[in-house]
């Protein structure tokens, strides 16, 4: 849980915006993101990351450096906050004893050892939430929840969950027309009575759909489109092997399916028979 909420105003961003989350220490995905942006003439100042630069993959130091070199805005994810504070675990919100909980120890320890103190200090200075204006609409940006950074919010979460978070955000930053979020790893848009809740998805891990491509979102003219991001999967897997990380997440990069579904609500799980 968080206490004081630090927020940043990114100003007016009226051109096309690249929205993404969860680089997850996947350097090859960050490089593919940079190429995607360059092909569309989107500068770093028009890119927003919803946090968790560091997580499951093998190149945490290089991924942080690459994201910083892009010059994009970043809100703090639970991984940034935990690493910056010297915490013993990622604070991802996984159920104790779940597969994801047990697997997180290895990559978190690797990241904590690989990152320099200066990089961790940079993480600690990131805002918890941000706001910006786009085409006359005001957007809020957060990672998971406003006061619980590791709160999982899904496309099928109850309406009351979105209302609670909307109210919590507006208590900090004032009225917003739409919210951009991350953490859960699955891209979606939920139309709520308040406005659109937009999860941009993540670039570092596939969205549990059986394909290797990850996701990035583009906000242009008030409309959001999701795009598949192809990258050097073999290179990312090699980085994970070099770091001595467990095979489970490397297998996920290749298969397109997460190593465990116990974090997912039942409606978003994929039956094993459907995986082929």
From TrEMBL:
Span of domain Calcineurin-like phosphoesterase: 36-220
Specify the domain of life of the species encoding this protein.
Bacteria
* InterPro entries found in the cross-reference section: Calcineurin-like_PHP_lpxH, Metallo-depent_PP-like
Tell me the Gene3D superfamilies matching this sequence.
Answer: 3.60.21.10
Q: What protein family does this chain belong to?
A: Belongs to the metallophosphoesterase superfamily. YfcE family.
Q: What is the name of the protein in this document?
A: Calcineurin-like phosphoesterase domain-containing protein
What is the species of this protein? Sulfitobacter dubius
Query: What lineage does UniProt assign to this protein's organism?
Result: Bacteria, Pseudomonadati, Pseudomonadota, Alphaproteobacteria, Rhodobacterales
């Amino acid at each position: 849980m968080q206490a004081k909420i630090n927020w940043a105003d990114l100003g007016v961003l009226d051109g096309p915006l690249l929205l993404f989350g969860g680089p997850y220490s996947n350097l090859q995905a960050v490089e593919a993101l940079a190429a995607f942006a360059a092909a569309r003439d989107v500068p770093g100042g028009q890119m927003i990351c919803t946090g968790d630069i560091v997580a499951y993959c093998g190149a945490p130091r290089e991924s942080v450096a690459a994201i910083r070199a892009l010059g994009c805005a970043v809100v703090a994810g639970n991984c940034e906050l935990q690493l910056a504070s010297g915490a013993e675990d990622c604070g991802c919100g996984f159920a104790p004893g779940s597969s994801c909980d047990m697997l997180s120890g290895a990559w978190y320890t690797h990241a904590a050892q690989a990152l320099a103190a200066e990089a961790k200090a940079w993480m600690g200075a990131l805002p918890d939430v941000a706001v910006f204006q786009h085409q006359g609409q005001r957007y809020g940006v957060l990672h998971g929840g406003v006061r619980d950074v590791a709160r999982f919010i899904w496309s099928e979460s109850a309406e009351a969950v979105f209302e609670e978070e909307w109210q919590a955000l507006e208590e900090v930053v004032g009225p917003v027309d739409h919210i951009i979020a991350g953490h859960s790893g699955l891209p979606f848009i939920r139309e709520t009575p308040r406005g659109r809740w937009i999860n941009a998805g993540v670039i570092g891990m596939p969205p549990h759909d059986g394909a290797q491509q990850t996701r990035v979102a583009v906000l242009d003219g008030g409309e959001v489109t999701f795009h598949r991001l192809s990258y050097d999967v073999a290179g990312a897997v090699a980085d994970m092997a070099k770091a001595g990380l467990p095979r489970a997440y490397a297998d996920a990069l290749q298969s397109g399916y997460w190593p465990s579904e116990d974090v997912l609500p039942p409606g978003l799980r994929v039956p094993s028979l459907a995986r082929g």
